[in-house]
Amino acid sequence: MNVSLTATDIAAFKKELAERSLMDFIRYGWHVLEPSAELKVGWAIEAICEHLEAVTSGEIQRLLINVPPGSMKSLTTGVFWPAWEWIKEPSKRFIGTAHKEPLAIRDSRKCRNLIASEWYQSNWGDKFKLVTDQNAKREFGNDKSGERSAMAFTSMTGARGDRVALDDPLSVDDAKSEAKLKAVEATFLEALPTRLSDPEKSAIVVVMQRLHEKDPSGIILDGDHGYEHLCIPMEFEPERKCFTSIGWEDPRKEEGELFFPERFPIDVVERDKKLLGPYGTAGQFQQRPAPRGGGMFQKDWFNVVRAVPAGTRFVRGWDLAATKDEKAAWTAGVKIGRTPNGRFIIADSTRIQGTAAEVERLLKNTASQDGVSVRGSLPQDPGQAGKAQASYLVRALAGFTYKATPESGDKQTRAEPLAAQAEAGNVDILEGAWNKEFLDELVVFPFGKFKDQVDAASRAFNELASAGEFEEIEIEGFY
Q1: N or C: which end of the chain has fewer CB within 10 A?
Q2: DSSP state of 196
Q3: In this structure, what are the phi and psi dihedrals at residue 436, rounded to the nearest 5 degrees?
Q4: What is the per-residue pLDDT across 283-332, written as a single tens digit (0 to 9) for each?
């Protein structure tokens, strides 16, 4: 039997599908926002929609989405999803935020245009009406108390939402600034939770590409914050295959399979990888803040040995901190030697998050264990207080050959000589229980959460490699 569907039947069918499925809603509403662009749909976009639907149903209340650029993450999360939810519950209040206010406003404006379109109004115009007295570029609302607001992430004030969508809270340049990272961390931990209408039921969705170990994704993954994690790297890495609580899993099987070949074929991916470089590729494409094998340092550059050759000369470099806060920097001391045949060997790393007294005790104990043949190098902070601390510590280590010198250049610059020798295959590492933590920090440098062991190693190496001998420290006002 042949069934003939009228245009009205087809429209009703599409409306029903769009109401049931966010992906179908995007498919049928795409022409409103992108009338001249073809919609390319892949399984990754469907996965994002599936997890946002789980937020709508209450199955997920905290969602972290890590996907490469060009994944339609902003359109899906900040434009189509709020418009789709208003079909079901027009009283919902949305806050869309990004690292720059214009980006948040852009998505708010697109969402308003979508809702005001003939397509949307002809299908769901009876659900609610947009109100004219709240129809600005930063926010708009409806007659059912629903709102859609836009603001810069680090300036979140005033509004509260049933849904807070955090889209790219950091720029690439922001990730290179310790001050910007700290500001974003403070906003994420202290301000974002207070922007929820109902702390128990309201939802937060974070969607971003990885840029640094201390970006909001890193904060989420490093702590117990209750987030579901949807992670889709550009190229499949079997050891990092993603599974989520709603029964979803990355469908790829083969190493290197692309996430969206319909939009990003292999030639485009390889071209862009060259432009991004190893760190950009690792973070923005692969959703980890350092290259798989390492960036400035790579694990396979270091040959693990079980003994130190006789006649090796040692220097232990230090990077100092004085706090017990587990989120703060460490005091780290790394011992590096130069063998008689000119090779270098990293023989030990010790570190602590302790008070000033505990740090001093660690310095003394380590110097005692190293013995008088091992020279020590301490950093001297600028200013009179830095000179005073350096003088005090050198005196506390009387009997050992220790000196303090100011730092020269930034951390990355100081690490370059060690990295060059490691890449050339001239650096060994003595087998020990400390190896994993040391190498894990090394391979994510300079974008890792901690840099203390790297800084200590750089100081030891640069002192060891320099031609000059240690000179007694002289600090004006203390001798």
Answers
A1: N
A2: B
A3: -65, -50
A4: 899 998 765 555 678 888 999 999 999 999 999 999 998 677 666 788 99
Q: What is the mean pLDDT of residues 192-203?
A: 91
- Angle formed by the axes of helices 356-370 and 383-396, nearest 10°: 40
- Helix H segments across 141-203? 178-186
Helix or strand (DSSP H, E) at 270 = helix 266-280
Please give the C-alpha separations between residue 73 and each of 4, 68, 213, 278, in angstroms, as whole numbers: 38, 9, 21, 23
Burial 448-479 (b: 16+ CB within 10 A, else e): bbbbbbbbbbbbbbbbbeeeeeeeebebeeee
Global confidence as pTM? 0.69
Q: Locate tokens 């640069």: which residue?
A: 462
- What would the two tokens of residue 368 be? 């005692």
Output phi, psi for 121, to 5 deg.
-65, -35
From CA 65, how far away is CA 53, in angstroms rounded?
Answer: 13
Could you tell me the domains of the chain? 7-285 (3.40.50), 299-465 (3.30.420.280)
CB of 347 closer than 8 Å to CB of 339: no
Per-residue buried b or exposed e for 322-332, using 16+ beta carbons within 10 Å of the residue's own CB: bbeeeeebbbb
Could you tell me if 20 and 13 are in contact, meaning their C-beta atoms sit under 8 angstroms apart? Answer: no
Q: Tell me how far apart the terminal alpha carbons of the chain are, to the nearest angstrom.
A: 105
CB 182 within 8 Å of CB 176: no
Q: What residue has token string 């350096």?
A: 390
